[in-house]
Design brief:
The complex is a heterodimer of chains A (about 300) and B (about 210). By secondary structure, chain A is α/β, with parallel strands linked by helices. Chain A has 10 helices and 9 strands. Chain A starts with 7 loop residues before the first helix and ends with a strand. Helix content of chain B is about 70%, strand content about 0%. The N and C termini of chain B lie far apart (about 75 Å). The chains are: A alpha/beta (about 300), B mainly alpha (about 210).
Chain lengths: ~300, ~210
């Protein structure tokens, strides 16, 4: 009897073998002047663009249950603080109920924080969050988590399987949401401009876009230490925790491929948003010296 | 084309006399766009664009100070006096809000030191420099600094006076400028006389064969 493959990595042919951290794949187009075949980066490697979406989707079917562990491992648990900072910066519920959409938020990390913040700080039980993810398994994980909370089976939370680059216009109508969040998700998308365009479309005029993502460390000393940690410790953690060094190597590489703060801010503006000045504290807020970064913008 | 935050700041400036240097003024800026919003910006949006808490108010005040310099340029002054009068006139619609705004600007974000005079000094220095530039001041070397230093003092005093007695501010400025020019003239006389004394002593010493 043929044994079922232990994980997706082994099940796929070599070209499609993707690591368990493919959520961290950077899928920005490499060069705009290379239309055929269109390629995108996979860590530091280049792969065909059309393969990405299904690869990411498939891979996440297998990593959903260990996603939080991966985040904890790669950031030493600090991602929780960063997510808290994101939500406390946005202050959901302060001026009344909000309609929020959390994209690439399958496990519900941000959604739960938004609802908790609104309830605990402002006694707001009317704020709603629609969690959107391309991956059904991630959504199931989020749904399971929410079943342990008071929000389960309330209109405050809902889960939708959809592609951030092409949100169905019938389900996610124009000018609908007050707040759009995407945390550690945008760098996994094939086309960042398309994600931003969709974010702009679904937000109401005056609505806020907020993106939490790994970014560029500008302090040379911190950058040196961070690089050392990233390229030595994280793959080692991958070996220990998941028996998969290559996956964690990809995580580090994909972070390095994500555009630096001013460039990403410029992409946000190109999508139609208005941002603050291109400085830390303006269009973006660096966290821990730029290891992560919160970009905010407004649809005017 | 996307609306820039700088444009919203410009739209917020005319709202300052009514709303002061507040987040409300920034929030209401979108009501004055060519395609106006139906409601002011949310607090969250104001924070995203202009900074959280008092940082947004400081951003608005700094934009207003920039507008003051532009107003001096727009007045096309022929002299330092006219430039400074134009700048004082720019203050007038927002006078009730200025003490709080200057206090806000002088309050450091970290809380230490409790009072930071640098922003106010920078503001006065910028006004003085702009006035000199607009009046085509040709001072060089030490005189360049002396002229600006004296104008910083004059303008700061006139602006402080304006906060308490707006009616007499322009006359007060004229008085200070007259006094300042008198002092300048006296200092110049002293300098000239000192140079004569120095030269004559140098001549005496040389004639005695000491040097």
């Amino acid at each position: 009897m043929q044994r079922a493959p232990r994980c997706l990595r082994l099940a796929l042919p070599r070209v499609q073998r993707v690591n368990r951290l493919a959520r961290c794949i950077n899928t920005q187009p490499d060069t705009p002047s290379n239309p055929t075949p269109r390629t995108t980066s996979f860590g530091f490697k280049t792969v065909p663009e059309e393969a990405k979406e299904s690869l990411v989707k498939n891979v996440f079917d297998s990593v959903a249950s260990s996603y939080d562990l991966m985040n904890d491992a790669s950031s030493l648990g600090v991602h929780r603080l960063w997510k808290d900072t994101l939500v406390s910066t946005l202050r959901p519920g302060k001026k009344g109920p909000l309609r929020c959409i959390d994209v690439a938020g399958g496990t519900g990390d941000i959604a739960l924080r938004i609802l908790d913040h609104a309830r605990e700080k402002y006694a707001d039980r009317e704020t709603t969050v629609e969690v959107v993810d391309i991956n059904g398994q991630m959504l199931k994980e989020g749904f399971r988590r929410f079943k342990k909370t008071m929000y389960h089976n309330t209109p405050q939370i809902s889960f939708h399987e959809a592609n951030a680059q092409e949100l169905p216009a019938t389900q996610f109508t124009d000018n609908t949401y007050d707040l759009y969040t995407i945390a550690f998700g945008i760098r996994n998308c094939t086309s960042i401009p398309d994600v931003l365009k969709e974010a702009y479309r679904v937000l109401k005029p005056g609505g806020t876009f907020a993106c939490l993502e790994f970014s560029r460390v500008n302090n040379p000393l911190l950058s040196l230490a961070y690089d050392q940690y990233s390229f030595t410790m994280i793959p080692l953690l991958g070996t220990i925790l998941a028996g998969d060094r290559a996956s964690y190597q990809y995580l580090v590489e994909s972070i390095r491929k994500f555009p630096p703060q001013p460039e990403f801010a410029s992409m946000i503006r190109e999508a139609g948003f208005t941002t603050g000045k291109d400085v830390d504290g303006g269009a973006w807020t660096d966290l821990w010296g730029g290891i992560a970064c919160i970009h905010t913008a407004v649809k005017i | 084309m996307a609306t820039s935050s700088a444009r919203l700041l410009k739209l917020a400036l005319p709202l300052v006399p009514e709303h002061g240097f507040t987040r409300a003024a920034l929030a209401r800026s979108v009501l004055h766009l060519p395609t106006p919003h139906v409601a002011p910006l949310s607090d969250r949006a104001v924070s995203s664009l202009f900074g959280s808490g008092d940082r947004a108010r400081k951003t608005l005040f700094r934009a207003w100070l920039d507008g003051g310099v532009e107003s001096m340029q727009g007045a096309r002054p022929a002299s330092v006096k006219e430039a400074l009068h134009a700048r004082l006139a720019y203050n007038e619609p927002a006078l009730p809000h200025l003490p709080e705004a200057f206090a806000l600007l002088s309050a450091p974000e970290s809380g230490m030191p409790p009072f930071d005079p640098m922003p106010a000094l920078k503001h006065a220095a910028r006004v003085a420099d702009e006035a000199c530039y607009l009046s085509a001041d040709q001072s060089l070397r030490l005189a360049w600094y002396a002229k600006r230093a004296s104008l910083i003092g004059v303008y700061s005093a006139a602006e402080l006076h304006q906060l308490t007695s707006p009616q007499s501010a322009h006359a007060f400025l004229d008085g200070l400028l007259t006094t300042s020019s008198t002092i300048d003239s006296s200092v110049e006389d002293v300098r000239l006389f000192s140079s004569y004394i120095f030269r004559s002593w140098a001549g005496i010493i040389k004639s005695k064969g000491i040097l």
